[in-house]
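Re: [ENG-882] Designed sequences occasionally contain unexpected residues at chain ends

Forwarding the minimal case from QA. Structure tokens:
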């Protein structure tokens, strides 16, 4: 009897171990989906118009974290995606934004510009070498000695380069002026299906030219915002000029292009069919269309509904070709939202609060001239909420950098609308506190300014001397952005807590059984251990 019981216990133990092992099988394919400006509240509000096999399937069958936090100031798509894929903040990975200001040259430049490499189907000369740390995809390539395939598809250059990493097979983005899929000679592979798409008469470059974006559904079905009175069908024309593709890349058709082209590569390159895991990165757009002057629009609802259909196509294709049990899919937002609302100004009794960047820059320069001399300008520029002082002049005059930063900060803090000003010296050497840690996370010695200006909520940022400057209203409300892990036998669960963006890379690395990126400090999310 004892032998029988012992045997049964052994069988159950072996069965349990086998079950656990099957749950933890290394995925054959990882699909990283980043949705620029995705909002969790919109997923809830618009779900009545979603299909059952798109977003709803992800939310109902996946491990869903309620919210993601990017713990640094001024996030955009480049800095956010770099944080997701490296598991580190800009302080380590070096990407503070899609563009950066070079104080020494007094010019704004594209972060990934690299004249050493030519473009394929583009005049842009770029590479991913601005990334100072490794990414998930880099570590996968290293672990498999290059046998894994890594492809990325995105609307914008920085999105594609970051997600492909420095070791990927290829990164593809949609060129601003031709509408074709572009890449860089940094990557040696230009896959034939993508080249075929560029030569097609039905590709994005043809479809988007002189295109009109109109509602997918009956206009009366767009009822997520009951206080929005205008229910007239919208029609947006991308035109037929040099701005055509820039506008088209902010419509749902860009997501259809990313999805269709990536799925062709998935099938033809047989991703997920080899021993080593492959990696496919997709970036979608869920932000506002520039011609729409409100956040409460039928257009944003239509964009989400159409994106839901693309998610459905992707899940169905992956289930058919690779099997969802063999695939890990993770979905994340970029954690910010560019509002189209610039303030309610119809009531003249309500003052419109404005912070004028150019006026602040001029007055600060005059103040420092009064103290240190009028022989040159002391302020190079105020850019992206940061003040760049003339470091070369400060060195020539042998002035203490800390002292001049303190005086400048004291002066700027007196401006109407300024909540607080932090100096780079404080950020690097000051006593630790949560606010300093927040700004330090977004600081890099190479590209950050001397002062960080924090404005009061409700103020509109205006620059009268820069025609290209887009007015923006300061809002401190949190944008709820979910993170979803799906497939690979992951148990469905909703976790009502905010996770750090830096926790995603270590978690994906753990599931793939590879090292975390070299600057990632966080541990694996406990629900996936």
């Amino acid at each position: 009897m004892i032998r029988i019981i012992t045997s049964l216990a052994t069988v159950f133990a072996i069965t349990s171990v086998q079950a656990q092992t099957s749950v933890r099988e290394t995925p054959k394919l990882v699909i990283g989906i980043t949705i620029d400006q995705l909002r969790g509240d919109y997923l809830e509000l618009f779900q009545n118009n979603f299909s059952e096999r798109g977003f709803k399937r992800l939310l109902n069958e996946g491990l869903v974290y309620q919210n993601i936090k990017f713990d640094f100031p001024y996030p955009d798509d480049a800095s956010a995606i770099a944080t997701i894929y490296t598991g580190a903040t800009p302080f380590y990975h070096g990407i503070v934004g899609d563009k950066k200001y070079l104080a020494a040259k007094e010019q704004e430049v594209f972060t990934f510009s690299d004249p050493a490499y030519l473009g394929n189907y583009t005049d842009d000369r770029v590479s991913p070498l601005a990334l100072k740390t490794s990414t998930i995809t880099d570590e996968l390539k290293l672990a498999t000695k290059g046998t894994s395939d890594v492809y990325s598809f995105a609307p914008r250059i920085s999105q594609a380069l970051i997600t492909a990493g420095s070791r990927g097979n290829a990164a593809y983005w949609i060129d601003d002026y031709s509408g074709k899929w572009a890449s860089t000679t940094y990557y040696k592979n230009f896959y034939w299906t993508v080249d075929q798409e560029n030569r097609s008469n039905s590709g994005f470059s043809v479809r988007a030219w002189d295109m009109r974006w109109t509602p997918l559904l009956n206009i009366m079905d767009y009822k997520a915002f009951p206080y929005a009175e205008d229910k007239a069908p919208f029609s947006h024309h991308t035109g037929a000029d040099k701005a055509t593709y820039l506008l088209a890349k902010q419509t749902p058709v860009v997501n259809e292009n990313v999805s269709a082209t990536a799925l062709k590569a998935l099938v033809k390159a047989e991703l997920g069919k080899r021993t080593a895991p492959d990696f496919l990165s997709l970036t979608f757009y869920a932000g506002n269309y520039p011609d729409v002057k409100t956040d409460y629009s039928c257009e944003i609802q239509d964009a989400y509904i159409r994106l839901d259909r693309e998610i459905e196509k992707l899940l169905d294709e992956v289930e058919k070709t690779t099997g969802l049990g063999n695939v890990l899919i993770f979905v994340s937002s970029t954690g910010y939202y560019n509002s189209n609302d610039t303030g309610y100004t119809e009531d003249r009794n309500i003052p419109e609060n404005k912070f004028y960047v150019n006026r602040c820059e001029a007055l600060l320069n005059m103040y420092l001239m009064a103290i240190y001399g009028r022989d040159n300008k002391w302020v190079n520029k105020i850019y992206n909420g940061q003040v760049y002082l003339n470091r070369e002049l400060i060195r020539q005059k042998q002035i203490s950098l800390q002292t001049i930063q303190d005086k400048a900060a004291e002066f700027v803090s007196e401006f109407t609308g300024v909540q607080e000003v932090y100096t780079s010296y404080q950020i690097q050497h000051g006593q630790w506190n949560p606010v300093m840690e927040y700004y330090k996370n977004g600081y890099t010695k190479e590209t950050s300014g001397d002062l960080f200006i924090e404005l009061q909520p409700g103020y509109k940022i205006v620059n009268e001397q820069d025609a290209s400057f887009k007015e923006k209203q300061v809002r401190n409300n949190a944008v709820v952005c979910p993170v979803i892990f799906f497939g690979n036998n992951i148990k469905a669960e909703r976790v009502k807590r905010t996770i750090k963006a830096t926790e995603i890379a270590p978690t994906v690395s753990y599931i793939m059984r590879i090292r975390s990126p070299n600057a990632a400090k966080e541990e694996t999310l406990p629900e996936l251990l």
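QA comment: On inspection the terminal residues look reasonable. Residues 354-473 form a domain with the Gyrase A; domain 2 fold (CATH 3.30.1360.150). Proposing we downgrade this to a documentation issue.
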